């Protein structure tokens, strides 16, 4: 199962990413600009916008 985290570039979203990654979950970070996103190493960034 893959977990998609919205708001992943914010303060709380980034902490959620780190927690999930630390527990071995397969995680993707939803962001408008994956090329600029600062997500933890090894996690995938997915381009998208929840409008």
What's the SSE blueprint?
Layout: E1 2-5, H1 11-22, E2 26-31, E3 44-47
Parallel strand pairs: 1-2, 2-3
What are the salient characteristics of this protein?
51 residues; alpha/beta; 3-stranded parallel β-sheet; 1 helix; 24% helix; globular
Task: Please tell me about this protein's structure.
InterPro entries: Epimerase_deHydtase, NAD(P)-bd_dom_sf. Residues 3-38 form the NAD-dependent epimerase/dehydratase domain. It holds the Pfam family Epimerase. This is NmrA-like family protein. It is a single chain. The chain is built from one helix and three strands; from the N terminus they run βαββ. It is an alpha/beta fold. It has one domain (2-47). The chain has a three-stranded parallel beta sheet with strand order 1-2-3, with helices on one face. α1 (11-22) links the parallel β1 (2-5) and β2. 16% of the residues are buried.
Order of helices and strands: EHEE
Give the quaternary arrangement of the chains: single chain
Roughly what is the average pLDDT, rounded to an integer? 90
Major sheet summary line: 3 strands, parallel
Strand order of the largest sheet: 1-2-3
Taken as a percent bin, the fraction of beta residues is 25-35%
- Helix/strand/pairing class, anyone? alpha/beta
Rounded to an integer in angstroms, the radius of gyration calculated over CA atoms is 10 Å
Low-confidence stretches are none
Q: Tell me the total number of β-strands.
A: 3
Note the gap between the termini: 25 Å
Coarse shape:
globular
The percentage helix is 10-25%
Number of distinct helices: 1
InterPro entries: Epimerase_deHydtase (IPR001509), NAD(P)-bd_dom_sf (IPR036291)
Protein name: NmrA-like family protein
């Amino acid at each position: 199962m893959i977990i998609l985290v919205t708001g992943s570039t914010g303060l709380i979203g980034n902490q959620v990413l780190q927690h999930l990654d630390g527990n071995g979950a397969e995680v993707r970070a939803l962001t408008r600009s994956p090329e600029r996103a600062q997500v933890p190493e090894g996690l995938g960034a997915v381009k998208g916008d929840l409008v």
